[in-house]
Write a structure and sequence with these properties.
alpha+beta, about 15% strand, four-stranded mixed beta sheet, 14 helices
Length: about 600
């Protein structure tokens, strides 16, 4: 489950990198075909690169710890085993991984069903229609009031809605979409939106892909059309057609103003191609930071034989869930006989499978403090036990619980060190970590559709000189083009009422979101307080100097830091997304 979430985070980060590179460096360039492949490369890189992992092996010297030879450990069989188990209380824990997976699955299935419905809608439009084959294209003249579109080699339009010249412009535009297989780009971007639906960047990424495809079609169609101004008027006329098929290349896409400006813009200089290469060092940094797995391997210890001569004898008594009452009795007798340790076992309970679920163990030695442990629960106990070590004639009793008795393992002809604890430091079950609160989601309901815009007062674009080498004519054209762009910037139909409506809606959503964030901050304060209490409890139970406490605290602190970083990043992303959404929605609905 964790691997899935890490993959999603890495893929989303790569999408953000490619989109930022496109938005800040390439969006205003006229390298439309190169932009197409750049955007597609970003999608597939985000899908493949997280799986590319390089392994780095680091050789380290063996830790300077006492080595326990297999001959120095006396591991008893079932008739010589004893057990101790700390109290375990069943508690209901919310598995947030499964909840997040369920939320993701709901969104994924919803969009997948929507995708299937769109295919069905497309099939309904094309079903039983007369198809006219011309060269590599299939023309379908329909009666429905649907914006013209192309789907692979199909070009669909309603001829009754346009004049002959307008229809010619539309067909030239759609031929470019069909000839260059732009439908593949549309389908790929739609699939990525289904996979990464929770990431707001993927929706803007998809929009960038569709917008760039329109730039390509406009640019190529304009080369074959003599009256470029008539073509631009055709673009504006199609904006009034609201109905369209979702998984096709529409003749109309949003941001018509930008399409007209890009259509009249001078070609970008080739030296600006350097912008495509800026993504390479960023990808290299991503691989170096996140895609290199370091494995530490310990060098073989040469002085193993010398160390085994000074080993501390260890006596291990282990009890399992299927240990019998007779074996418990024999274990107590063995401890008394060999180590003069009194051990009393009581309150033994078993389930229907005759497995131990409860036990009480009292241990007493003349030179040690009395120790008493009682375990009660519904599930079978974990392997635990008693370790008796002898050094310089003195014996030390240690109790290990919750499977820690199984940790000593043979590695390269030696046994790893067994942690030493004093008799009073018992090891009960680890306290349960508090569950962090879930971040609230920003509302994403659709914005009301804008009314039809009045385009009668749109300024006329300048006509480029036929001879591009005429410097005087080109200089005049650039001046006229700059004036045209300024006029286009001030060309604003009266959309104040609609903009006010959108601002009110966004303000209400922002207020509701801030209210939820305030609740979240209060929950986070409580979570932090619970974590502080947990740290104190861990220190009291395990001891501040114990390895278990140290390892546990490092892990918990790391989780807290990650949670805080994720929270801050999420808040920034949501606020940026909200502002960007307001800006984009205003632009999209001005026409």
């Amino acid at each position: 489950m964790e691997a899935l979430f890490i993959f999603i985070i890495k893929s989303s980060a790569l999408l953000v990198l490619f989109y930022c590179a496109y938005y800040f460096l390439l969006d205003k360039e006229t390298f439309f075909n190169s932009n197409r492949w750049f955007l597609l490369a970003g999608l597939f890189t985000s899908l493949i690169l997280p799986f590319v992992v390089f392994t780095k092996i680091v050789w380290i010297d063996p830790a300077p710890v006492s080595i326990l030879n297999t001959n120095a450990i006396s591991v008893l069989n079932k008739s010589q085993i004893s057990f101790y188990r700390s109290a375990q209380i069943e508690s209901f824990d919310i598995n947030w991984s499964y909840i997040l997976l369920a939320i993701y699955s709901i969104g994924f299935l919803t969009l997948l069903v929507k995708f299937a419905i769109d295919f069905y809608s497309l099939n309904s439009v094309l079903k039983d229609k007369k198809v006219q084959q011309q060269a590599d294209f299939k023309f379908v003249d329909i009666k429905e009031n649907i914006a013209p579109f192309s789907y692979f080699d199909y070009i669909v339009y309603n001829s009754s809605m346009f004049t002959a010249s307008e229809l010619e412009n539309i067909i030239e535009h759609e031929k470019v979409h069909s000839d260059q297989n732009h439908t593949v780009d549309v389908l790929v971007s739609r699939i990525f939106c289904i996979l990464f639906w929770f990431n707001p960047i993927i929706w803007m990424y998809k929009k960038a892909i569709l917008q760039n495809l329109e730039f390509i079609a406009d640019n190529e169609a304009a080369k074959k059309i003599s009256d470029k101004k008539a073509y631009q008027y055709t673009l504006l006329k199609i904006t009034t057609h609201e109905s369209c098929v979702a998984i096709t290349n529409h003749f109309y896409q949003s941001l018509i103003k930008k399409r007209i400006v890009m259509l009249n813009k001078n070609q970008s200089k080739k030296r600006n191609c350097w912008k495509y290469y800026t993504i390479i060092p960023v990808l290299i940094a991503f691989v170096l930071l996140f895609q290199i797995r370091t494995i530490a391997q310990e060098k073989e210890r040469k002085d193993l034989k010398e160390n085994t001569q000074n080993e501390t004898p260890v006596y291990v008594l282990k009890i399992r869930k299927n240990t019998t009452d007779q074996e418990l009795k024999e274990m107590a007798e063995k401890l008394k006989k060999d180590h003069n340790i009194d051990m009393v076992v009581s309150n033994v309970k078993r389930n229907t499978q005759n497995e131990l679920t409860a036990i009480k163990v009292d241990i007493n030695k003349e030179t040690e403090n009395a120790q008493s442990i009682e375990v009660e629960g519904d599930e079978a106990i974990k392997n635990c036990g008693i370790i008796v070590t002898t050094k310089d004639g003195l014996k030390n009793i240690n109790l290990l619980t919750d499977g820690l008795i199984d940790e000593p393992a043979t590695i390269r002809k030696r046994i790893a060190e067994i942690s030493q604890t004093n008799g009073s430091n018992l090891l009960p079950a680890s306290p349960v970590s508090p569950t962090p609160p879930a971040l609230p989601a920003f509302p994403t309901e659709p914005i009301p559709q804008a009314p039809n815009a009045d385009i009668s007062k749109m300024p006329n674009p300048p006509i480029a000189p036929a001879d591009r080498k005429d410097k005087v004519a080109m200089a005049k054209f650039e001046i006229e083009m700059a004036e045209f762009e300024k006029k286009m910037e001030t060309f604003q139909p009266d959309m104040s009422a609609y903009e006010k409506q959108v601002e009110e809606i966004m303000s209400q959503r922002e207020a509701a979101y801030e209210k939820e964030m305030a609740k979240y901050n209060l929950a986070m304060d409580k979570f932090s307080s619970d974590m502080d209490k947990l740290n104190i409890e861990m220190e009291q139970k395990y001891g501040k100097d114990s390895k278990i406490y140290e390892t546990s605290m490092k892990q918990r602190n790391l989780e807290m830091r990650r949670l805080e970083i994720n929270k801050r990043q999420h808040e920034k992303d949501v606020l940026l997304y909200e502002r960007e959404l307001q800006k984009i929605e205003r632009q999209n609905n001005r026409f």
